Structures are given as structure tokens and as C-alpha cells.
Amino acid sequence: MINNLIAPCGLNCETCDARIATVNDDNDLRARTAAKWCQLNNTDTIKPEHMNCLGCLSDGVKTVFCTSMCQVRKCCLSKGFISCAQCDDKRTCKDLSVFISNNQDAFERIINGK
To answer: Is the terminal CB of the chain with fewer CB neighbours within 10 Å at N or C?
Structure first.
């Protein structure tokens, strides 16, 4: 069974601030998350109103980052993968390494094929 709250990059959507803000309709958390994501992605295009998401693989709304900016999600979709765990290049992928460099749990999920 696929856990639709684990993103293709191995991050846990259940603990994602964008998803939490959506589930709790928390506009302050939306604003803080947008600012954080802008800083992390060196952009100013992610706005609080974009912080509506139910999870990368879940049905329903996704953030603008997940739908149009996330290179990892785009790559998985283009290859027909649910997760980077299915990819032979997971250990050397530069796009994936950005996401998992600060998240050991995501790294373990991908390497262990979850």
C-alpha cells in the first residue's frame, strides 16, 4: 500500500507546514512557510496564498511549489515513479540531494525503498 503522505523525495507531508496550515486553516503558518520556502529556494514568488496543500501524492490541492517548481516531483512524474526510491540515480541525483541533505528520515526512506 502506498503512503500518500510520503512525497516522492521522501519528505513526510504529514509534518509539512504547508499541509498543516491547510488542514488547520492557519494563515499565520501559511505566511511563515511561504517566507521560509522563498528563502530556501532563492525566490520571491512563493506567496502565503500558495500555501494550500494536502500532500504531494494526495488528491486535492497542492502548493504552487509542488505543482510547478519542484524538480524532484517533476522528475518522478516524468519517469512514472511514485518515489525517488524507484530510481537508479537516487544516490547521485543533485535535485534529490537538496531535499534530503537536511532530513535524514527522508534519506532513509528513499535509500530503503519506502
So the answer is: N
Q: How many domains in the chain?
A: 1
Find the mean pLDDT for residues 47-59.
Answer: 92
Dihedral Cα 21, 26, 30, 36, nearest 10 deg: -80
Identify the band that residue 99 occupies on the pLDDT scale cut at 50, 70 and 90. confident
Cell of 94: 543533485
Amino acid (one-letter) located at 27: N
Q: Please give the distance of CA 67 from its chain centroid, rounded to a whole number.
A: 10
Q: Which residues pair with 12 in a beta bridge?
A: 6
Q: Is residue 6 part of a domain?
A: no
Asked if residue 73 belongs to a domain, the reply is yes
Q: Judge whether 2 lies within some domain.
A: no
Domain housing 18: 13-106
Cell 507531508 sits on residue:
13
Tens digit of pLDDT for each residue in 18-39? Answer: 999 999 999 999 999 999 988 8
